[in-house]
Amino acid sequence: MADSDTPRVPQLLPDAVHQAVRPGTALLRLVTTQTREQVLDGAWWPRSRDIGAELPGLIAALTVHLGPVLRVGLDAGAWEELPTRLVIDDRVVHIDSFPVGDDTVLITRGDQDHFSLLVVPPHATPEAARAAMARAVEAGNVIQAEQILIDTGTRHAHLVPPEEPTTGHERGER
């Protein structure tokens, strides 16, 4: 049997990557069961919002662990000049625009094989990025990407407009 005939078993990333988190890092937790209870399958910390520069590295890392990636879903508003496809390692990877938010990227390996990754903003500090990525890959995580980023200080909560000031008279005071 030739090496190319041998089925590839996805590899896991070493735990040491948690200590070496820096821009460009991808952390993955691959769920192998049919019931995917976690919201996220991993996390990615790109160096910039230039998808043409950032995506090849992510796809190369994912291909090593998952096999060929066919499609990537991103929010067009979150990235500079979103192309419809990129050629990465002699493979065409289709880029789909979805309103998923700037905090999520969707990866498609096969017809129905999707992975959802938290996207840590490029401006995040290493400490905040490490915390967000660790939360994203926790077993049983049910917290959405946006809330993880808010909780870890990499994104600010949406500001609620302040209420109109009231006078004592309006509150029934004399």
Reconstruct the topology from this structure.
Layout: E1 25-28, E2 42-45, H1 51-66, E3 71-74, E4 85-88, E5 91-97, E6 104-108, E7 114-119, H2 126-136, H3 145-151
Parallel strand pairs: 2-7, 3-5
Antiparallel strand pairs: 1-2, 3-6, 4-5, 6-7
Question: Outline of this structure?
Answer:
The chain has 174 residues and is an alpha/beta fold.
Q: Which properties best describe this structure?
A:
single chain; 174 residues; alpha/beta; seven-stranded mixed sheet; 3 helices; 7 strands; 20% strand; globular; disordered N terminus
Strand content: 15-25%
| Number of continuous helical runs | 3
Instruction: Please state the structural category.
Output: alpha/beta
Compute the gyration radius: what is it?
Answer: 20 Å
Low-confidence stretches at least 5 residues in length (pLDDT < 50)?
A: 1-18, 157-174
DSSP summary, beta strand count:
7
List the strand order in the largest sheet. 1-2-7-6-3-5-4
Q: Shape from CA axes?
A: globular
The helix fraction, in percent, is 10-25%
How many angstroms separate the termini?
A: 91 Å
Question: In this structure, how is the largest beta sheet organized?
Answer: 7 strands, mixed
Order of helices and strands, N to C? EEHEEEEEHH
Mean pLDDT: 75
